[in-house]
Automatic annotation (TrEMBL):
A GO biological process held by the record: bacterial-type flagellum-dependent swarming motility
The Flagellar motor switch protein FliN-like C-terminal domain, residue ranges: 253-323
Domain of life: Bacteria
Membrane topology, as annotated: Peripheral membrane protein
Keywords: Bacterial flagellum, Cell membrane, Cell projection, Chemotaxis, Cilium, Flagellar rotation, Flagellum, Membrane
GO molecular function terms noted in the UniProt entry: cytoskeletal motor activity
Protein name: Flagellar motor switch protein FliM
Key word Ion transport present: no
Length: 332
């Protein structure tokens, strides 16, 4: 808050200036001197606000992908969202997590170094409980993981890392690969204690169980691609390169889509009594003569007219005519 001088103080200041007790030039120098700000080298600022915003956007997509993935795997209500993205020393991160937790250590080629996906025991054990047929509740005092529980967790989170690859695809093509699963933070030393990391905290809710999932990304690991985390670089690359890639991916997906193709020999109407009395050898009269073309439908729509035949001892249909768009039926 700015101090407001009283009239008496103003008069005293003017008198001091006119008498020479105070020098106006010295006052100006004091005003223009650079202010000193303390800097903690243990909390080195490696990520700019621009980088933090980009990481937030990327991992908001990651949180949405994880929500969909875990909801399908666990067959229950799952909600995951980004709480905060911050930078801090690696040692501070290690001291902030529980002594008994689930640490998924992974690499993301072509980047060199390791990252960590830390899952709170409440969340991890609730997932295992659901996978084994339970209601998704975590034990009050989590114990050591059994071999079966370890294998289940490795499979769950190995596939969860595929969603991280999808989220980063707009910035850089990563290939995450699970390296190890640990439960004691003291046994995990992926970087030096003073190394700055980006910590992405995800609030997680599985049924009635809540907890945190933390993604630890050391600065030294993503330093080679820091320039790609610039918002300007991101939007320019999206505009120039991403659109053609998306169109090509969409085209490939559409061409691989499967559609039901049905060739109708004809139709007939029976009463319930006639239907129930059908027996082997009975003949059902259709509404078309044998020389008439067959209605070939794609889905429910009539698209072609053809004729039946055989190719190498297999029943086949030859397309004789393409039905114009908008024409649903013929010869009726």
């Amino acid at each position: 808050m700015v101090d407001v001088l009283s009239q008496n103080e103003i008069d005293a200041l003017l008198a001091a200036l006119s008498s020479g007790e105070m020098d106006a030039e010295e006052l100006k120098k004091e005003d223009t001197q650079r202010k000193i700000r303390s800097y903690d080298f243990k909390r080195a600022v490696r990520f700019s606000k621009d980088h933090i915003r980009s990481l937030t956007r990327i991992h908001e997509n990651f949180a949405r992908n994880l929500t969909t993935y875990f909801s399908a795997q666990l067959r229950t209500f799952v909600q995951i969202s980004v709480v905060q993205v911050e930078q801090l020393p690696y040692d501070e991160f290690i001291r902030s997590i529980p002594k008994m937790t689930v640490l998924n250590i992974f690499e993301a080629e072509p980047l060199e170094g390791r990252m960590v996906l830390e899952v709170h025991p409440n969340v991890a054990y609730a997932m295992v409980d659901r996978m084994l047929g339970g209601s998704g509740t975590a034990p009050l005092k989590p114990g050591a993981l059994t071999e079966i529980e370890t294998i289940i967790m490795e499979r769950i989170f190995s596939r969860a890392l595929e969603n991280l690859q999808e989220a980063w695809k707009t910035v850089f093509d990563l290939s995450p690969r699970m390296e190890a699963l640990e439960t004691n933070p003291q046994f995990m030393q992926i970087v030096s204690p003073n190394e700055t990391i980006a910590l992405i905290s995800l609030s997680t809710k599985i049924g009635d169980t809540t907890g945190m999932i933390n993604l630890c990304i050391p600065h030294v690991v993503i330093e080679p691609i820091m320039s790609k985390l610039s918002v300007h670089h991101w939007f320019v690359s999206q505009k120039k390169a991403r659109v053609p890639e998306e169109l090509e991916a969409l085209r490939q997906r559409v061409t691989r889509a499967q559609l039901p193709l049905i060739a109708e020999l004809g139709q007939s109407q029976l009463t319930i009594r006639e239907f129930l009395s059908l027996a082997p050898g009975d003949v059902i009269t259709l509404n078309k003569a044998t020389e008439e073309g067959l209605a070939i439908r794609v889905g429910d729509n009539l698209k072609f007219i053809g004729s039946p035949g055989m190719i190498k001892d297999r029943i086949a249909v030859q397309i004789d005519e393409i039905v114009n768009e908008g024409v649903e039926e013929f010869d009726e």
